[in-house]
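Example noted here:
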Amino acid sequence: VKHLVITTKELLNPRFIVNPANRCYYCKKELFTELKQIALKKGINYVVDGTNCDDLKDFRPGQEAIKALGVRSPLREVGLTKKEIRGLSRKMNLDTWDKPAFACLSSRLPYGTPIDKKKLQMVGEAEDYLFKSGFKQVRVRHHNNIARIEVSPEDIEHLTSINLRRKIVKKLKEIGYHYVTLDLQGYRTGSMNEVLERNE
């Protein structure tokens, strides 16, 4: 399959970098506007994304841009959930069937915290280290100088083992965090949206 790698410019969009609650709208609009233009030039009739039915259970402002631009979501349209997609992928012997979910690094910053390359690099480097340390499902939530680590609930005890904990703290402080914390609820999608639910 031929791949075309593109570069988008959402970090130049002031409406995106102020990190509003509908941040994903501006990112998806930038991305799919660019893809639609490429599709038009190449005579491609449809642009599709990987949205599934489970994605609609969380706050997803990017869906507005997807709908407005006429992007199709075949997995959602046929009613497939994430679990069903994994099951089908496994039956087809795809090596990505159990690949952990991975959202945009901007989602690690609380709404209202300006987005810039330095913060995204800090998050990316911290998560890479945790992945290399053997954790499959990881999020490092960036709260200014505090790193709030989320791992799968079954991995919490492993992360708190003395030697590993010391290594993680040392590495994340080298990256630039002053404080390194562990979220005792463990990994969950959309944890930054919990503040929106409380404010409703």
The longest strand covers residues 138-143. The chain has two domains: 10-91, 105-196. Residues 105-196 form a domain with the Alpha-Beta Plaits fold (CATH 3.30.70). Residues 23-41 form the longest helix (19 residues).
